[in-house]
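Milestone 3.1: sequence recovery, worked example.
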């Protein structure tokens, strides 16, 4: 028997990349590769890249530079670049780093085995097309290994919104939704392997419009209700959404679908209508606030999370104040906030930029407000009972960690619980980033 070859995947960016990396590992599993945590003993290194941060491509080139020595020692080592930087840079990658054997865009992972075969002949393998076929259809051979209790499942990819700061429509292409039956069968498979919570993923997941079994398009709410029928699947979440795609049925599902968790990540980006317009967000601050009102009417304990970009071109102090006002009005349970940074190729990169020190100062003010809100909502959980899906042992002896329905990390100590157990927990304490409690 020949020893299995080892595959090291370094994943950058969002949960969709985490999911894609798992699927790539499975596709290459069929070629005899097993995962390793160390690039040093790998036979193949794959960087699954993300283009969302500033200088993303430069970071990938410098990471590749680190593997030069390894490649010189082991000429058979295969090095690949996948993901959004691969899509954006294409051939430029092999031009600048000739040791790279294969470059594969996010829509072509199902072609990895073929690309690898080509790379083994010494030829350079490059695929950054947007093929018509569904890559997931070709990635069905999941090995039946046991899975952690919470898993991601990509149901939609790409985006048609073209926000002025975002590269997704260019790197991931137009919106594509997976058919309902494929999503349901993958969810069933995950549940059989021990998964109890599934987070449905998509760059614009609530724009989901997959073909149902009878041939008509299904929206995300209908898909969620169908998934909720699966015995053993206890929790469903979804991310990331655009406010304009939050339709009536999806709002209602937050109130009437027990398995849909009371946590929603709904990016707004800014609170000034002028800036929202410049961002091409296609909604206003008021329409966003009205939507939150309707969601909270359907599910009063809904915890909200948001994304914010501070210092977008032409943002004045008054525009920024409008963002603070919106945050005050919503009260977020968690949030991600960043300074605007130009991303080449996006329309906003061409406009008048806010000075760096102003961006920094505004970001600090926004983050201190968001942290106060997050802390207040978390502290308000003390004394309440939450449901916790336990995921893994904690850092200290006898400690177990899980997630509440609101996505708080919850620690308990000395309880008779195992990963996958779903239990009621009384919250006793609120720490900096997590809750401590006792199993009821
Ligand atoms: S909706 Fe989201 S993914 Fe689509 S362009 Fe806007 S920020 Fe990017």
């Amino acid at each position: 028997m020949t020893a299995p070859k080892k595959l090291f995947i370094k994943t950058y960016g969002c949960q969709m990349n985490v999911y894609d990396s798992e699927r790539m590992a499975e596709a290459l599993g069929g070629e005899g590769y097993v995962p390793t945590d160390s690039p040093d003993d790998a036979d193949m290194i794959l960087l699954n890249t993300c283009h969302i941060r500033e200088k993303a491509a430069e970071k990938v080139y410098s990471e590749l530079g680190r593997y030069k020595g390894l490649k010189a020692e082991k000429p058979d080592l295969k090095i690949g670049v996948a993901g959004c930087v691969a899509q954006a840079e294409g051939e430029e990658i092999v031009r600048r780093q000739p040791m790279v054997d294969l470059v594969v865009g996010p829509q072509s992972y199902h072609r990895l085995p073929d690309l690898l075969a080509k790379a083994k002949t010494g030829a350079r393998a490059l695929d950054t097309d947007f093929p018509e076929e569904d890559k997931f259809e070709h990635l069905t051979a999941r090995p039946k290994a046991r899975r952690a209790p919470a898993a991601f499942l990509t149901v939609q990819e790409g985006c048609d919104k073209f926000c002025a700061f975002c590269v997704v429509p260019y790197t991931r292409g137009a919106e594509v939704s997976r058919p309902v039956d494929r999503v349901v069968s993958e969810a069933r498979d995950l549940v059989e392997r021990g998964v109890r919570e599934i987070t449905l993923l998509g760059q614009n997941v609530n724009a989901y419009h997959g073909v149902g079994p009878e041939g008509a398009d299904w929206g995300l709410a209908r898909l969620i209700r169908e998934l909720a029928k699966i015995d053993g699947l206890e929790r469903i979440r979804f991310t990331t959404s655009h406010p304009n795609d939050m339709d009536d049925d999806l709002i209602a599902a937050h109130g009437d679908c027990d398995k849909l968790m009371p946590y929603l990540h709904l990016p707004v980006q800014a609170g000034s209508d002028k800036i929202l317009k410049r961002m091409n967000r296609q909604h206003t601050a008021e329409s966003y606030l009205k939507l939150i009102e309707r969601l909270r009417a359907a599910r009063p304990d809904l915890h909200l999370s948001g994304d914010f970009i501070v210092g977008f071109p032409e943002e004045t102090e008054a525009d920024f104040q409008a963002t603070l006002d919106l945050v005050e009005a919503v009260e977020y349970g968690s949030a991600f906030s960043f300074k605007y940074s130009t991303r080449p190729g996006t329309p906003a990169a061409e406009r008048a930029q806010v000075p760096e020190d102003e961006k920094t100062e505004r970001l600090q003010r926004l983050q201190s407000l968001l942290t106060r809100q997050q802390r207040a909502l978390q502290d308000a959980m003390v004394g309440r009972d939450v449901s916790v899906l336990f995921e893994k042992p904690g850092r200290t002896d006898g400690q177990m960690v899980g997630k509440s329905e609101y996505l708080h990390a919850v620690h308990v100590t000395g309880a008779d619980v195992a990963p996958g157990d779903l239990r009621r927990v009384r919250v006793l304490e609120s720490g900096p980033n997590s809750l401590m409690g006792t199993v009821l």
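The mean pLDDT is 91. Residues 5-127 form a domain with the Rossmann fold fold (CATH 3.40.50.12160).
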